[in-house]
Structures
1.
Amino acid sequence: MDRAVAAARRAFDDGRWSRAAPAYRKKVLHKLADLIEANALELAVLGVRDNGTEIGMALKAEPGSAAGTFRYYAEALDKVYGEIAPTAPGILGLVHKEPVGVVGAIVPWNFPLMIGSWKLAPALAAGNSVVLKPAETASLSLLKLAELAAEAGLPDGVLNVVTGAGSVTGEALAMSMDVDVLVFTGSGGVGRRLLEYSARSNLKRCYLELGGKSPNVVFADAPDLEQAAKVSAAGIFRNAGQVCVAGSRLLVEESIHDEFVEALSRHAAAMKVGNPLDLTTNIGAVNNLTQLEGNLNFVTKAIEEGAEIALGGSRIMQDTGGYFMEPTVLKGVKPEHNVAQNEVFGPVLAVTPFASDEDAVAIANSTKFGLAAGVWTSNLSRAHNMVRNIQAGVVHVNTYGGPDGTVPLGGVKQSGNGHDKSMHAFDKYFDLKTAWMQL
């Protein structure tokens, strides 16, 4: 890791990329996007073998998303302008945007290529050098991405991928005195350690996306309750629930509670759990045994606290090996229950009824998280009010999941700070420099 950071620093300081013409950087990043598309199946399969995502979802969410992300920032990089300040006569105030230097990026195992690209593409487009540390259990697709970046013509040292345990390579990256910005997606516990490492080293800026406990609020006047049930099931159970924005808390208006839970459970039960390399699979594998055991412990604790199992709740043994779990629906969950307060990161849905708009907002905002949310209603005023009042970085209305790269993703409260995606992602990777000139 120390050698990788040193290589990134040399590459940044000598200007081989940081001072290269925008047209050149654009050409290289477009070439990388072409290579990602040309190698999409290999990249997807590498990821599936690592993290267990069902292949149908992986093709779109991993190489498909990554290629689009690199194209977006390749096109955007020469549209970022400085500013001329409206100052007094005889003074010229200029605001320059300059690359920050060496960016350290630590990404999780659930969508390594997609989330890695959210960090890499804007950082590289801005002219920075990057050292990327993948999760221990999902590094293959990002190692392949580094090979493709070299093939695309990215200069040596500009992108470095270093594998290893978080306690070794991750800590070394976060403690480095030569890393200027650290970006991270993962757990709150690790995020707190990264802030400590920043304080103990060079006070590097840290941007953290720390997961969520996202409420999906269904009103009786939803435009299509059957469609809402189907989409809500996919919104929690695809990728075995291992999605940071997963709608893991279902809040249902009391008057439709029973029928909606039945409809959602029916759609969930129809989803095929199995070999993630099988094109007919809807729900793939849990990433590792520790995660599976944690998921099952959440179910056990929920039952102890008074919840009931409406669907699932158990491990599924597969002849392919690996770790699989039934899509699980828990009803009768109260807002204070453990499963309603803490991120499971697995195929476990906590269902809670609500009586009014105010009740829904109070329950939705009753956790420490604030990453995403969903609202299902035909009432335009209600939709706007819920978007305004729910504490979340992303609020879906009459859908769940799917915002593309044109809009930012970030959280509030203990879901983190800073934004991935859209032009706002550049904010993390540029420094502002003022030039104050007497004419």
2.
Amino acid sequence: MLKVLLIGLWVCLVSIGGVYLSVRMSQSSAEAAAAPVPVVSTVVRGTPLSMPVIKNGAVEGYFLGRISLSVDAEKSKKVQLPMDVMLTDELFSLLMGNPMIDLKNVGGFDPEKFRTKIKEGLNSKLGDAVVMNVMIEQLDYMSKDTIKSNSERRGNPIPPQKIVEGTPVEATPAPSH
């Protein structure tokens, strides 16, 4: 009789210990899951762009630029279109469809607002926060008169008007789509 009572007590202790350990282990895995996972980003280097500035039905000049993106590597794998194509579309919308740059007052151009507009526009099209950062490598303006003058002068061309002095971005392999 005493043996049966001790075996019952031993089974209860083992059961309580097992429940206690399983609860402790589930809490530690929940804490590990709640810890922030570092976001791995990749750079999508934009293609050089030459966009005409059209006023009153005539070409006034050209925007010359290159803008790159830092994107979430995992989220960008789910994107169907190439990111550089989407970036080009967004730039055409901002520079031609809804002009953000007043060529008469280039000093009033806000690069941070421009970056934010690009980032928000692309993320809204993608439906997720894929774009993490926008990097302006080059954004210049060259008037039609300057281009004509440069074609006539062979030795000493007039440089384009700098809108933003950017920094080159190291190319990294873009995720395949």
